[in-house]
Amino acid sequence: MITYREALSEALWEEMERDEDVFLMGEDIGLGGGAFYITKGFMEKFGRDRVVDVPLSEAGFTGAAIGAALCGMRPVVEFQFADFVTESYKMIVDYAAGNHYRQMGPVPIVLRLPAAALVSAGPFHSQNPEIWFFGTPGLKIVAPTTAHDAKGMLKGAIRDPNPVIFMEYKKFYNYPVDELPEVLRPEIPEDDYTVPFGQARTLREGDDISLITFGTTVLEALEAAEVLENDGVSVEVIDLRTLVPLDKEAILESVKKTGKILFLHEARKRGGVGGELAAIVSEEVFEYLDAPVRRVGAPDAHVPLSPPLERAYLPSTEKVVDELRDLAAF
Question: What predicted TM-score, i.e. pTM, was given to this entire model?
């Protein structure tokens, strides 16, 4: 088994060998191997023309990558931290997302965003950017949580003719594989493969409550489901894997079965993806609900730098258990 970080590195390496139009851009990705060493050794193999160290100008190099994509290349842009993508926001939502609509042609670009909290990384290196792009047509948003999905989805993103926001979770980069729940350790094929977008994965079957999540909180979701099992409550856990396209049917079919649903994500609860998903459930399967739709997310504050405050801020297994028990008792 390989780590999440190694899976991403393998995906990039294999795609660069497969297609000469694929090239990488980012800060310190060449000589430095990237902030998390995912591209270590790439420049020696593929050269400076295909592993491009760029200045500290996110808007500038994102714009350059969009131009390259319009000319038929397939750029993969690495941001050192997801938070810094705000510098490129206009380039992404107006040009990457809008150029095909404006009949300027496809924009096959992948934007790799190391997202979410890492112990004591502080408020400028710990954000979850999905909601910044969730309402923009023309963008795909991918959020893999396993090494298998990270590799297969990154390969699929690179081959996709559309711009892809590819969220990578720093917490998982070097997470010891043998410490992960077995369901988060699927075998990685030796042969070439991709993982299709828009297909959620059921991590745990259940009959009483649906727990819908993505990203880092799959760990808390599985732990909480184990606790509820001891209470005699069967919790179904679903990992969305991609937010756009969304596997809406997986959500709706699950809530039809259980009648109760909880949405969980690391990002702030206010304005989070969970609110949109809750609205979908209320609009389309309200008659199946036996309890109000619940959400768990971070509070309306910035991510603290202090480790104890950070632990209090992030959605914990205990918080998820409390919500699930309230739902079970409703």
Answer: 0.97
